[in-house]
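Supplementary material to the annual report.
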Amino acid sequence: MRNHPRIAVITFGLILGGLVQPAAGDPLRLGSTAPGQPVVITYSYSNLLDGTFLLMEPALLRAATEEALGLWAAFAPLHFVEQPDSGPPASDGSYPASGTPQIRIGHHPTVTAAHAFYPNDVDGLGGDIHLDSGGAWNLGDGPWNFLETITHELGHSLGLDHELDVLAIMNPFYPQQRFTSLGTGFLYPADIEQLRSIYGSGRGSVTPLDPTPEPGTLLLAASGIALLAYRRRRSAGRSG
Ligand SMILES: [Zn+2]
Ligand SMILES: [Zn+2]
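Predicted assembly:
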């Protein structure tokens, strides 16, 4: 297993911070299997769903994150598996990689909208994604588009670099207003090409710990409970 001693932080969003390129040589990648072979990548929400990440419901954050993971998993054999979070609170301090999920998604006050860390075998920060705690995050268009930002940052977590000369989600200079709601995410050919140069072609999956019920299912369950209560009341009324 190769070690990558340099930890690179990539920024995205309103202000582009200093971009640290990964070490030259072999592409950085999460997992140690050969390109084209299935790779399991663990992820968790460190503090993203703690209810303090402004303006967005945890269920929406989860749904958008799962959609973004699914975009990358549609073109390479990446199997994302959610784990309970473990490790230190979200910050840019290094910590040991062993025993923690590979991609931990959280928030803390940042000078840019978001940043991510390239894969790293030793430092737990490798693969992690941090979004700005105070951002006006939303799922509509605009610079604080959570779905678009998390898709871009996941690219870095997987080892993808910026695409500076072509249309790409990994192009940080192109207007970031392409996704307009849940279900509208996509990748450009340049993103897919770079992904496949690292992981090969194939199809992966996304396995959340606690799948988000569809709104329709929730409604059905709620009405079912209401109906049951009504019947109980009626039968109680009849017998009493
Ligand atoms: Zn970036
Ligand atoms: Zn950070």
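Residues 1-24, 216-240 have pLDDT under 50 and may be disordered.
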